Amino acid sequence: MQHPSWCDRTECTATGLPGGGLHWSPRAVLDPDPRTDISATVRIGQGTPVPGHPGSGPTLVDLTVHMPALDPTDTDADYLILMEGERAVLLGEMLVAAGRVAGRSGNPVAGPANLDSREAV
Ligand SMILES: [Zn+2]
């Protein structure tokens, strides 16, 4: 079985059989936010194509956000979003644009009013 160059063999679950398992890249990790303890990981996954199904086996981006329990009655939760590469690029551009505006506002808790990029620097 061929593995993509980015495949992390310790994470790979691909079986080589049609529709069996996924190749996974190593995870990029966003450490927990000191104020909220929310963290995130990003990795690439690819399933094995199924013969006769041209849309099978695409390379996808997995964004997983880890939300810690808020109190003892709560439980940790992981929210996973799988998206194709183009959508991941669009989401990344949106985050960069919003992050730059929020970062220059000088307000660590920037609200929607601070997202207008036409405001003076
Ligand atoms: Zn693999």
What labels would you give this structure?
5-stranded antiparallel beta sheet, 1 helix, 26% strand, binds zinc ion
Walk me through the structure:
Strands 1, 2, 3, 4 and 5 form a 5-stranded antiparallel beta sheet that branches. The mean pLDDT is 87. 17% of the residues lie in helices and 26% in strands. A hairpin with an 8-residue loop joins strand 2 and strand 3 (39-47). It starts with 21 loop residues before the first strand and ends in a 17-residue tail after the last helix. It is built from 1 helix and 5 strands, in the order E-E-E-E-E-H. It has one domain. The protein is α+β, with helices and mostly antiparallel strands and 121 residues long. It binds zinc ion.
